[in-house]
Design brief:
Blueprint: H1 2-10, H2 18-42, H3 48-68, H4 78-97
Length: 98
């Protein structure tokens, strides 16, 4: 019986209510809207390939935030590092050919 208690103590599960989801979405949605709006507006002053480079570099910052911030719970794995590296190399290759 003590084995089942120790398992419950080491395993954590967070269940969010509908209100929790609505609350989080109301905080993220304005930022999401603004970022998409300004991205669309920026296309007037830049090329599509330059905007592609900027968009592909965003994965580096998202990965860094997800792994290094106190809110992030992502674990760094070889596969994730490889994915971020490929996005970065794609941005470099696009810049080089432009």
């Amino acid at each position: 019986s003590t084995d089942s208690n120790s398992n419950n103590n080491t395993t954590s599960c967070y269940l969010l209510s509908h209100q929790d989801h609505i609350s989080m979405a109301s905080k993220v949605a304005p930022l999401w809207f603004l970022s998409n709006y300004f991205y669309a507006m920026s296309l007037k002053w830049t090329t599509i390939s330059s905007s592609t480079v900027l968009a592909s570099m965003g994965s580096i910052f998202a990965f860094g935030f997800a792994t290094c911030s106190r809110f992030g719970d992502e674990k760094v794995t070889k596969g994730k590092l490889m994915g971020v590296a490929l996005c970065f190399l794609g941005g470099v290759a696009t810049t080089w050919t432009e």
